[in-house]
Amino acid sequence: MELKNKALFKEQAYINGKWISSKDQTTFTVENPFNNEVIANIANCGAEETEEAINIASEAFKLWKKETAGNRSKIIRKWYDLIVENADDLAYILTVEQGKPLKEAKGEILYGASFVEWFAEEAKRTYGDTIPAHMANARITTIKQPIGVVAAITPWNFPNAMITRKVAPALAAGCTVVIKPAANTPLSALALMELAQQAGFPPGVVNVITGRNSRAIGGVMTSSPIVRKLSFTGSTPIGKTLMKQSADTVKKLSLELGGNAPFIVFDDADIDAAVEGALLAKYRNAGQTCVCANRLFVQEGIYDAFIEKFSKAVAALPVGNGLNEDTVIGPLINQGAVEDVNNLVIDAVENGATIALGGVKGTANIYQPTVLANVNTSMKIHREEIFGPVAPVFKFSTEEEVVELANNTEYGLAAYFYGKDYAKLWRVAEELEYGMVGINTAAISTTVAPFGGIKESGFGREGSKYGISEFMEIKYMCWGNV
Hints:
By secondary structure, this protein is α/β, with parallel strands linked by helices. It contains 14 helices and 20 strands.
């Protein structure tokens, strides 16, 4: 690892303020997705270490919840400062283990840090209420209290930001946390823990369990009565499993699951702006995001013109090693991901789609940026999340038709559309069944707005003033004989 701060490279799990190996001393490898080079051997923890971390977090909670909001805020703010100071190294770690271009990785680090900064401030604003009472001699107040030990299970596509987006509000609320990062990308989580230790979090307040056996680790997290909150980002099938497993202990859940985002371009849209937005919405992180434009719907009057301009813009995107400064599209996470994307393209072509650009596998887990024309709803690519750099472009005729097409999915995370008729913009924005809607913009992810979906894309919100409430309980107190 070519790091300025070599202390950020860690291969052990982090429990109770200490770096530990697994009980059985086994490890698993982490590979660079661009060249499959082994870059680390990580402690392969399991159920026993998870149980230990939860118990330690429970003990730490007794003291952390009693810290003043101001003191918690200062430590979290120090964590933010350290993340920003080490942003270049953190970005390098992220690119090497995940594959996304270095510039994009740096953007993720700063985006992730923004949640730490935001919730350092929100720690001091968890206000209660006084409520007009039902009796003359009574008084009613409410207070907000931290829910307890939080389990956070995070994905490989945003291995830094998905941690800070969950952990920062939990810590600000007064909770303690046990994190299970994806086995493909544990190094970013461990680097964050090194900085958390430097920031001054007491032992046991934040812990990281690394391991390949996600089922065993997740099973302990969901079955433990000590864990009162589970926050998960990942696929809908796994989210459903975790939800079922959490039922016996009636945990509070936040689930940010799969997406099938529509990207609609009406005849009256600024085509150049729509092309620029589609590039961002589709090809960020090589299409490996839950809010990626999964289905592009273009109105028939501008369909051909959009395909031509969009394909030309996509063809200009440099593809390659994320460590190269000019790279815009890096590798997919592994060969399995490449095959999944390629199979969707093959199915689409066999059912009548035409390849306007790309459609071929490269070397080193690369899939060439692809544009498919003449796509229809019978194809798998209409129903399934692509998670790769492939843009299927559908043609539509009317506003009513495209709203029905866009909503015809079990998912409801993000949607985007472009046009100029403001009456139509309002109608479509209200009719789209999604938790987040971008109107003439694809840049919807921000600290200050609530991130989350509806339907089978999950529930709960991350970021914004709403984010900290996910980790707190409201207690009502009735004062009699006043």
